[in-house]
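Note to self: keep these together.
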Amino acid sequence: MRLLWQHDPAQPIGRWLSIAEDLRGLRVRSKLNLAVERARDILALMRDGAVDGLSIGFRVERARAERPTGLRRLERLDLWEISVVTFPMLPGARVEAVKQTAPKLATHIRSTAARLFS
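Structure:
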């Protein structure tokens, strides 16, 4: 499963650690690859609250029309990718949490080392 930026196959930004369906929908956990410049940019935007959308890319394998509404019920999908996006189609498809620990830990280590060795 691909973790992309804005559904762009030329912009992979990390990998999915877990993907599971629950009563609300898909629940996912990912890890951005911070060796990728775009992933570092996206992490900064997510930490700032500027970007928090998620969106799936899929192919419909089986669907049927609901009567009398005419709505299409998707019964089977081939999930290709999940993207971090600026504007998700579904308002509730959001990033719930972004880890903040690594930069704080690095700052703490640097300040402790400075005190010890100065």
